[in-house]
Amino acid sequence: MDEVMRYQFIIFTILTSIAANAQSLPNRYQEDVFDTWTETSEVLFSTDVPQPVPGGGFYEWLTGYPLNVDEFETTDEDLYMDIFQPDGDTLSMRPLIIICFGGGFLTGSKDHWSIRLLAEQLARRGFVTATIDYRLGMNIFDSDLSNRAVYRGLQDGRSAVRFFRADAAGSNIYNIDPDQIFIGGHSAGAFIATHNAYLDKESERPLSTYVWTQDSTDDCPDLGCLDCAGDNQEYSGHANAIFSLAGALGFTDFIEASDDPTMVMFHSEDDGTVPYTNGEPFSDILWLVVGSDLPNVYGSSDMADQADSVGLPYDFHSYTDRGHGVHEDDPVLYTDIIPGVEDWFYDDRLKPKNVSLTGDSTVCSDALYSSYHASSISGGYYDWVIDHAESITGDAFSTDVSVVWEEDIPNLKVSLVPYNMLRARGDSLHIIVNKQDVKTNTWSGENGLWTDIAEWSQLRLPRYCDDVIIPTNSLTNVLTLPPNVQSVVRSVSVSEQALLIISNGSSITIKDKDTEE
Description:
Blueprint: E1 5-9, E2 16-20, E3 37-53, H1 58-63, E4 70-86, E5 94-100, H2 113-124, E6 128-132, H3 143-169, E7 176-186, H4 188-198, E8 212-214, E9 218-220, E10 241-245, E11 248-249, E12 262-268, E13 278-279, E14 297-299, H5 300-310, E15 314-319, E16 328-329, E17 332-333, H6 337-350, E18 357-359, E19 362-364, E20 369-374, E21 381-386, E22 389-393, E23 400-405, E24 411-419, E25 429-436, E26 439-442, E27 448-449, E28 466-470, E29 478-481, E30 486-489, E31 491-494, E32 499-502, E33 507-510, E34 513-516
Parallel strand pairs: 5-6, 5-7, 7-10, 10-12, 12-15, 19-25, 26-28, 27-29, 28-31, 29-32, 30-33
Antiparallel strand pairs: 1-2, 1-21, 3-4, 4-6, 8-9, 11-14, 13-14, 16-17, 18-20, 20-23, 21-24, 22-23, 24-25, 33-34
Helix pairs in contact: 3-4
């Protein structure tokens, strides 16, 4: 039987078969595996969060943006998201990417064209994605008060994370793995992501997010703890990893340890809105605004330096000529953005790691059977590819298979591609199987060492399919296996007048039976 024997998982069904020339599972998360997606619009995720009101003044009148908000006066606002799911997907555990729009905390929406493209294209690769609203409004004339806008966005991003963790723990409508929730965005949306990852302690909150005085007269309310705005507050809003498109941090010291959430960053050196290294945001336009006062922030280059210093894994895509819209090649995305985002999440978080394949690498011509074992993966699926098998025992949800090989085929091979419960593909593993003829290998010397090749009748050391004979010659034979030598043979026959000594640290394995001293 010359065809390849392969266990095949029929996509989106629980069906296992052995089929000729079958195909592996699709490379979910790294390739487009779905043609379309299903969008659920205007899903409420956060209710009655306090929104500062516009403060008026010349610049608000001129631009129409809430850039001089009264932090001491608020109205309650509900926040919504749009959710994108791979169309027809029935996988019960899926990673989620939450995507936040840019706009300097002054403008923008979840409907921005490039944000939607990110969500749609990532959904085609098997992620569930969500584009979210968050509260807008900043006071750009007071660096302390401006921190409150970033903190509100951080709270709203965490509220979106909590929404999905609550769903996973309850009705599980969206089939999300609560341990694989990622967040990212562009510009202000990237600020939300970076601060979600690294401003993760109450002690790191800016002082102005507590009760604070505006214009020396009005008390601004305490914005509350990281997970104190919005719904589902019994869950954590801390994401597992992030992506940042032209983002920054308030302080690089927020990146503290190698086990912090990891990140992939995209930033261009000629960005005039969010500094590539550090400085005040909006440097290309704020010189036009009299009295503006924003704090320094630390861009992707400085974040990368800090990650290096603490041993935090990250990926950094640096450019020289993309400006602030690092991902937008209007009207499409730059072609490296989607692969850059999903490759990082796949390699860092999703892909099965440390999977091993063990089993027989040699079979004898008179015993053409062998067995193989893969290390266990939670919810694993095992795509076994076994060439020239007469029969195979096992299935694609088992870590073990046994094989009876065809005769007269010199080159044999076992391959395995493992998948985990998220159906993320691991690295392909292989064992080349050497078929040996059965030989008799007789010791022809007298006293000596097992490693003396010239004294064996086959003029080589005994091997897997050898029947080893140690006879009695003119004198009593003493054959010694030196220290730290391991040998595998088919059988060993020692005459009554001969002596086989196995030194410490050495062994002779007889097929499935070990003889050690």
